[in-house]
């Protein structure tokens, strides 16, 4: 049986696996066979690590990053739902312009999960907690409105989908629930359902725009209406960076109205009011009447007769507040009872408050 010798002092035998001579303690690192063995162990370790990497270079840390498809779909559906809400595409909730940030948040977090960049799972969890808090903040005036509950439910579903190690059942259940919550949010944007303020027919809906400083208590039977339901009897302008509006009415009685508040008006009040009257569907060439504007708009507000292309008739009031905000308020009645717009204007205007 061949014996192993120390190349330095000749000591024999050398124990198997020894890295130095037990007699003279000379290390064996200089030997080519030892170096080749070390390189093989390093290569095996590197191959093992590379097998655990994803195509995009991140490390698989659990079920969220290993199977991101259904979870990413929930985030992308949420981005679409927030875009419809922030842009007033289906219904105008008078949201501030920064709500578009939630659209970007959902898109970015979805891409981060899909590409498995950095601590993707942790970023998604923090992002959904933030989105849930913002959805709750936007619902502070009416937290039980179905549209707000739907958007908060979507944030909760997305958060649950990225917590822990979701299996196939939780992933696909989250996908289904997330899509349903987003669809319900869109439906409630089109057909708003106000909170229940009591029993019977005396329930009143309160419209609040904290960022633009208005509050409107509607008469019994009236409620928020999207611009699609106002048309063709009354036009609600699209939201801008400085202004936004809200539509309301009693469609069963053929009564429609809208309120607009803009912080960026810069022209003389007459020119601004004529432009806003035209945007509401009226004739900007008519002269102001001697009728009284709602008390909240002040004694200097202008009042115009309003007749739209559908034959609806009513009243439009416009004025600038002391802080420079331009306020437009209109109520019309549709045919065949187009003569009721003036009385409806007075009734609804009594519930208007401007801070």
UniProtKB/TrEMBL annotation:
The organism is Hyalangium rubrum
What is this protein's record name?
Zinc ribbon domain-containing protein
Transmembrane ranges, per UniProt, are 71-91, 97-115, 122-142, 148-165, 172-190
Which keywords does this chain's UniProt record carry? Membrane, Transmembrane, Transmembrane helix
């Amino acid at each position: 049986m061949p014996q192993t010798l120390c190349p330095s002092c000749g000591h024999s035998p050398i124990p198997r696996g020894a890295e130095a001579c037990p007699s003279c303690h000379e290390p064996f690192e200089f030997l080519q066979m030892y170096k080749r063995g070390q390189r093989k162990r390093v290569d095996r370790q590197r191959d093992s690590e590379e097998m655990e990497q994803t195509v995009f270079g991140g490390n698989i840390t659990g079920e969220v990053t290993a199977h991101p498809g259904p979870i990413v779909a929930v985030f992308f559906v949420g981005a679409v739902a927030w875009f419809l809400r922030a842009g007033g595409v289906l219904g105008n909730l008078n949201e501030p312009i920064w709500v578009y940030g939630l659209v970007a948040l959902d898109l970015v977090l979805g891409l981060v999960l899909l590409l498995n960049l950095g601590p993707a799972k942790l970023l998604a969890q923090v992002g959904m907690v933030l989105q849930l808090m913002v959805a709750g903040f936007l619902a502070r005036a009416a937290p039980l409105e179905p549209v707000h509950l739907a958007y908060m439910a979507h944030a909760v579903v997305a958060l649950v989908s990225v917590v822990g190690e979701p299996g196939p059942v939780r992933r696909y259940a989250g996908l289904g629930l997330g899509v349903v919550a987003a669809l319900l949010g869109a439906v409630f944007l089109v057909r708003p359902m106000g909170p229940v303020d009591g029993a019977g027919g005396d329930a009143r809906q309160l419209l609040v725009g904290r960022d633009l400083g208005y509050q409107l208590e509607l008469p019994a039977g009236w409620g928020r209406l999207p611009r699609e339901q106002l048309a063709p009897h009354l036009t609600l302008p699209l939201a801008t960076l400085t202004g936004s509006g809200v539509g309301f009415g009693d469609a069963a009685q053929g009564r429609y109205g809208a309120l607009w508040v803009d912080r960026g008006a810069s022209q003389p009040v007459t020119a601004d009011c004529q432009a806003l009257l035209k945007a509401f569907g009226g004739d900007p060439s008519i002269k102001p009447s001697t009728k009284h504007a709602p008390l909240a708009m002040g004694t200097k507000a202008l009042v115009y007769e309003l007749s739209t292309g559908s034959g609806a008739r009513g009243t439009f009031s416009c004025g600038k507040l002391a802080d420079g905000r331009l306020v437009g308020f209109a109520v019309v009645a549709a045919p065949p009872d187009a003569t009721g717009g003036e009385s409806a204007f007075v009734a609804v205007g009594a519930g208007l408050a401007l801070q």
